[in-house]
Amino acid sequence: MDYRKCAQEIYDLVGQRENLVSAAHCATRLRLVTNDNSKVDMKKLEDVDGVKGVFSSNGQLQIIIGTGAVNKVYEEFLDISGMTAATKADVKAAAAAKQPLPFRMIKALGDVFVPILPAIVAAGLIMGLLEGMTKIWPDMANSGTYQIFHLFSNAAFVFLPILVAVSAARVFGGNIFLGAVIGMIMVHTDLVNAWSVASMIEAGEKIPQASVWFGLYNINLTGYQGHVIPVIIAVWFMCFLEKKLHEKVPEMIDLFVTPLVTVLVTGYLTLTVFGPIFSTLEEWILVAVQWIITIPYGLGAAVAGAIYPLTVVAGVHHMYNTVEARMLSVPKGYNTWMPIASSANFAQGAACFAVALKTKNQKFKTLALPSSLSAFLGITEPAIFGVNLRLVKPLVCGMIGGAVGAAVGSMLGIGATAYGVTGLFGFLTCADFIWQYAIMLAVSFGVSFTLSWFLHRDQTDEGEGEAVAEEPALPEITCEPGKVYAPIKGNVIPSAEIPDETFAAGVLGEGVGIEPEEGVVYAPFDGEISSTTDTKHAVGISSPDGMELLIHVGVNTVAMEGDGFELFCAEGDQVKAGQKLMTFDIDKIKAAGYSTTTAVLVTNSDDYPGLEIKAGACEPLNCVITMKAEEAAEPEKA
Amino acid sequence: MKKFTYTITDPSGIHARPAGVLVKAIKPFASTCTITKGEKTVDLRKLMQLMGMGIKCGDTVEIKVEGSDEAEAAAYIENFLKENF
């Protein structure tokens, strides 16, 4: 289909530039805001080649075009109309693109991991509990129920590449099913399970190999169970390739050529180039780690404890079992790697726990709490990927805590008699060193938690959290008759400048508009709530001296039917100035395409001879409207 | 006294903005105007009270107008409701 032609026809039928206010698009639709919808020829629009449907909702003209095509039509549309894309997402993306590369990579890693966290939190908790319980009751490992639960616990880790691949494909804008295929290739059952490789080498078995690139070199036919980084690299490449192909390949054969080439090329490169390079790096890391821990006086342990979480990020920590097995194979040998890992894991959990306790962001709290719990049981992926790595600071705090703890552990000479468990259940394998182990965990917890607690700050764009923090800071004020104190933090403008005719014309009364910076409405004076609406976007309040005030959040927000709004008062309530009346979600209002400008109007302003307003930036409870107080109100003009 | 009933057809019901327009529009009349929905009756001139009624699409309201210009006022209000709600 001809995107340019489609865009041009739409442009002409909606009344060209002079009738256009803004243009945005979602996954399937072109969303236009027009000055006058009646100038739009809906019938003809529906007949445009490429348009699957047209309807108008909430003042927005929505043109259904379909996935894949809508963005291209949109780009052409912008080009033709000379408009600029001004969606929030674009602005955000532009802002993100300015950040240095390491931050973008960390952000991408976080974006990929967050959606799959529930899966690995569940698996991590089951795994931690199960391993701990089998240490207490060794017989349990023989029961059928254990075996079934064991499947549940490691399914998400064994097939982690598939989960990661799907999520990564979504983040990088590729087809998620092709992404899933790449993930499946990496853990295909015909490949040797990565976790069996160590024991196979130990047993002297040969790892099957395949000759690739016309006999240029051989690769090990091993899977990538539990891996993260090579999967993300592979899927990133896949998405890049897929997009390029979509551009170049003629649409008629696009559907079979693009997926075919994408999977063939990406799959081959993954198993022969990306994967092997990564496996080699992995081996080097292992060699390096084994050398590091031989450095005496706890120094080596400290370094290993610090870098341990980074190896979790890289996904190579599963290989440490080889090292541990070797330590234990010596007669009377202790596993001295386990305390290092345990300290590092516990410290990451502690850093995450500090964030969980300190953050005001409810969403983050509910994520950080179970993640830290899982880390205390020895499974740190949720805490590291979901919380610590995203914020960076807690990761570093955890690394410091882990280093100190590992050094202490090494100096106390802790050794475990098995491998596989860390964290709290580690006590079971350190039966000879109970108190030493306790001290080590306490040290790593203490250092990491303290640092993380003092360094963590909620990010500024988490407006909700800030508002809660500021709430108690509102001063108590004595209300004077005829004065309205700002109900919202933001920028005050004269009501005539509110982007809505009805408000601007003063039909509902004179007052001000506030362009909100925070989604909280406070009572603007002592008084009684005289009205609320089911849609929760407007509140009326009357003062004892007879002033009636309407606070109407946003323009046209009645159409949101309460979504994103929360009321904290009811009709007839007596309220004090500064009391929280309502919260609203600024982002949601913007996303729905409405202005957030909030009308604060004295609905009976006709009863007063006039009013003074104070425009400009305001904090909650700054005086913004003063009604002129000539008691002898003139008789109403007919 | 004049009275009549009207059923709201506007999908959004009588919400803030059009309610304000209505209140403003009847200001010039001398008659007292009330609106009744179910058991609740309020002064049609009080925007806050009118909004507080929470009148929705499909609700039937009764308007009562009483005073020197009640005929004119009632006709005006009825017409206004038909055009706007």
Key descriptive features of the protein:
heterodimer; A: alpha+beta; Glucose Permease (Domain IIA); eight-stranded antiparallel β-sheet; 14% strand; disordered C terminus; B: 85 residues; 3 helices; 4 strands
How would you characterize this protein structure?
The complex is a heterodimer of chains A (638) and B (85). Chain A is of the alpha+beta class. Among the domains of chain A are: 3-86, 2-Layer Sandwich (Gyrase A, domain 2); 296-459; 479-627, Glucose Permease (Domain IIA), CATH 2.70.70. In chain A, 49% of the residues lie in helices and 14% in strands. Chain A has 22 helices and 20 strands. In chain A, helix 13 (299-314) crosses helix 15 and helix 15 packs parallel to helix 19. Chain A is flat. Chain A starts with a helix and ends in an 11-residue tail after the last strand. Chain B has three helices and four strands, in the order βαββαβα. In chain B, strand 2 and strand 3 form a beta hairpin. The longest helix of chain B is centred in the last third of the chain and has 15 residues, at 70-84. Chains A and B meet through strand 11, strand 12 and strand 13 of A and helix 1 and helix 2 of B.
Rounded to the nearest angstrom, the radius of gyration of chain A is 31 Å
Mean pLDDT of chain A: 81
Q: Strand sequence of the main sheet of chain A, in spatial order?
A: 15-11-12-13-17-9-8-19
From the N-terminal CA to the C-terminal CA of chain A, the straight-line distance is 63 Å
CATH fold title of chain B: Histidine-containing Protein, Chain: A
Q: How many strands in all of chain A?
A: 20
Rg of chain B over CA atoms, rounded to whole Å, is: 11 Å
Shape of chain A: flat
Low-confidence stretches of chain A: 86-92, 460-473, 632-638
The share of residues in helices of chain A is: 40-55%
Mean pLDDT of chain B: 81
Largest protein interface, residues of each chain: A-B, 26 and 18 residues
Q: How many separate domains of chain B?
A: 1
Strand arrangement across the biggest beta sheet of chain B: 1-4-2-3
Share in β-strands of chain A:
5-15%
- The dominant shape of chain B is globular
